[in-house]
Design goal:
- Keywords: Membrane, Transmembrane, Transmembrane helix.
- InterPro entries: DUF1559 (IPR011453), N_methyl_site (IPR012902), Pilin-like (IPR045584), Pre_pil_HX9DG_C (IPR027558).
- This is DUF1559 domain-containing protein.
- This protein is α+β, with helices and mostly antiparallel strands.
- The protein has one domain.
- It starts with a helix and ends in a 14-residue tail after the last helix.
- The C terminus is likely disordered.
Length: 342
């Protein structure tokens, strides 16, 4: 009888000890999990930074070979009814990112939407490549654009400057590409030309002439009189699952963004097709679209976005950056900054 009681007591103590151990493990996991998640995000952000450095090197090699940075978007009137994209800064820098085979498959005499291949998956503008994908954005296979029109997406966009309220990058009329600009500094009319009413507001033509990447024009580095370390080249855009143009690699409306709003702003993007989320709010202009796009820098990194400058340096810019400072670093000859106040 005494032996049986001892066994029961021993078993009871073992069970209590087991519960205590489980509780301790649970507490430790709850304490360590945020640290593990933070470490993983730090690794992803580092990889994202490395991708931007590779893109920066590709841009510098392109500039060295051609005498200027690539055009932000290359457009030409192919039919009387529309202006078609013949590629973007992403398309022409492929050889400098070890994607020469993909570059050779592109017929730059034809709009991307008329490229021919045996199957849709082999179309040049439907092919992903890792250098243009930020690992923090999530599973790219879930957000891949599945429409034959716009193709694959990535997470990096070129700086087209900034625009006034309700103004964006105009891409559909070859005569209006650079309204109000001469490629230097701020345009005389920062709101452009009124061209359509949308959701009760007056929308204006694009202002894309005072960032280093423009429609049908790229600048030479010596034109960046504000200084290459004071001028943004590329930042991030956030992909959203579904029919969303943002990040489309070979369509300028997806890989050119503006500094009109600070990073990860709650103010909505405007583009032809998009899916609005809390992290990437937007308004689709599909019903009355006239080639108008206004994207802000956005990322899945907590607190800000990675930014590549024209001197090939990469910095993390917080969401709380002063709005005027954010606008200032978007221009290449705006004379807003000096080394003493940057």
């Amino acid at each position: 009888m005494i032996e049986s009681s001892r066994k029961s007591l021993a078993q009871g103590l073992t069970l209590i000890e087991l519960l205590v151990v489980i509780s301790i493990i649970g507490i430790l996991v709850s304490l360590l999990l945020p640290a593990v998640q933070a470490a993983r995000e730090a690794a992803r952000r580092t990889q994202c930074t490395n991708h931007l450095r590779q893109i920066g090197l590709a841009l510098m090699n392109y500039e060295s070979a051609h005498g200027s940075l690539p055009k932000g978007d290359w457009r030409q009137r192919m039919r009387s009814s529309n202006i078609d994209s013949l590629g973007t800064w992403v398309s022409v820098t492929l050889p400098y990112l070890e994607e020469a085979n993909l570059h050779q498959r592109i017929d730059f005499s034809k709009p991307f939407f008329e490229q021919q291949e045996l199957t849709e998956s082999l179309l040049p503008h439907h092919i992903f490549f890792d250098t243009h994908i930020c690992p923090s954005n999530g599973r790219m296979d879930l957000i891949r654009w599945n429409n034959a029109h716009y193709g694959a997406r990535g997470n990096y966009a070129a700086n087209a400057g900034w625009a006034g309220p309700d103004s964006g990058v105009w891409m559909n009329d070859i005569q209006w590409e650079q309204i109000g600009t001469d490629g230097r500094g701020h345009p005389e009319n920062p709101t452009g030309v009124e061209f359509i009413a949308h959701n009760g507001r007056t929308i204006h033509s694009a202002i894309s002439g005072f960032g280093p990447f423009m429609v049908n024009k790229g600048i030479a580095l010596q034109e960046a009189t504000d200084g290459t370390s004071h001028t943004v080249a590329v930042s991030e855009v956030r992909n959203v699952e579904g029919d969303d143009i943002r990040g489309s690699l070979h369509f300028g409306g997806g890989v050119m963004y503006l500094h009109s709003e600070v990073p990860n702003t709650a103010i909505q993007d405007f583009t032809r097709l998009c899916v609005s989320t809390m992290e990437a709010p937007c308004v689709s202009t599909e019903e009355t679209w006239r080639g108008y796009h206004k994207l802000s820098a956005r990322s899945a990194h907590p607190g800000g976005v990675n930014v590549l400058y024209l001197d090939s340096s990469v910095r993390f810019v917080g969401n709380q950056i002063d709005r005027n400072m954010w606008k200032a670093v978007s221009t290449f000859a705006g004379e807003e900054l000096s080394s003493s106040n940057y």
